[in-house]
Amino acid sequence: MRYARDVEAVVVSVDYRLAPEHPYPAAADDAYAALTWIAANAAQLGGDPERIAVAGGSAGGNIAASTALRARDLGGPHLVFQALTYPGVDGSLTSASVREFTDTPVLDRAAMELAWRYYAEERHPEPYASPIRAADLGGLPPAYIAVAEVDPLRDEGLAYAGRLGAAGVTTELVQVPGAVHGFDLLFPKARVSERSLADQVRALREALHP
Questions:
Q1: What is the per-residue pLDDT for 1?
Q2: Three-state secondary-structure class, residue 210
Q3: CA 9 remoteness from chain centre
Q4: What is the pLDDT of residue 2?
Q5: How far is CA 42 from CA 52, 167, 206, in A?
Q6: Is the separation of the CB atoms in 9 and 204 below 8 Å?
Q7: What pTM does this model have?
Q8: How far apart are CA 6 and CA 108, in angstroms?
Q9: Is the dihedral of CA 37, 40, 44, 48 positive or negative?
Q10: Annotated active-site positions, please?
Q11: Which of 30, 58, 112, 178 is placed for a possible disulfide with 16 were both Cys, Cβ 3.0 to 4.6 Å?
């Protein structure tokens, strides 16, 4: 709602298929199919096909990053921005934060292992499953990435932001101090959550209304 109201954007929420009933690549395929439909029908939706962004949190951040990669690789719809909140972008589960956070609220290492087993049994190395595994991140849309400090996904988000920047992609990175995974959904009225959402809104507004 805040994206639609405060960014002044048409927001389309994609009801992609979910694992374990529909493992990779079902969700990634659905999201990309939705993007191509949105671009072709933007005027009907009240939007602008030249000003499309993707956004998502956690698994949705994975799907958003995957969609941006696929659009670049296939010469698909032009994206002006990607907003990723505590995204899961690395199915290898080898980061320091995944190893460290074995008993954190909401999400811990065991939950991550289960999630990836359901989503991609072999922790699929394809970049559309694990975006950080893409050999080249150049040519992707500018990014806003927010990570939570006490979150197994923290370090892969940091690493993805670093690789995007190294590839010449304009990237804004925010680490939310003291926050756990999903903090903004669990405690939407908390000051830290309000600040994080305001940052997302500001980044999207700047991208969509330059």
A1: 73
A2: coil
A3: 18
A4: 85
A5: 9, 30, 20
A6: yes
A7: 0.96
A8: 33
A9: positive
A10: 58, 151, 181
A11: 30
- Residue 39: C-alpha distances to residues 8, 31, 52, 145, 184 (Å): 18, 12, 8, 24, 29
Residue indicated by tokens 């698909």: 76
Give the closest residue to 138 by CA, choosing from 167, 172, 162: 167
What lies within 8 Å, CB to CB, of 68 at 6+ separation is: 54, 79, 82, 140, 141
Token pair in block for residue 188: 């939407």
Q: Is the peptide bond before 188 cis (omega within 30 degrees of 0)?
A: no
Residue 152: the pLDDT is: 98
Instruction: Indicate the DSSP class of residue 41.
Output: T
Q: Show Cβ contacts of residue 91 under 8 Å, excluding neighbours closer than 6 positions.
A: 116, 119, 120, 123, 124, 125, 129, 130, 133
Tokens 């000003």, residue?
51
Strands 53-57 and 143-150: unpaired
Which amino acid is located at 137 in the chain?
L
Give yes or no for a contact between 31 and 67, defined as CB atoms under 8 angstroms apart: yes
Helix, strand or coil, per DSSP, at residue 105:
coil
Helices (H), the chain: 2-6, 26-40, 42-45, 59-74, 96-100, 109-119, 154-166, 183-186, 191-208
Which residues, given as ranges, of the chain have pLDDT below 50? none
Look-up of token digits 């979150």 = 151
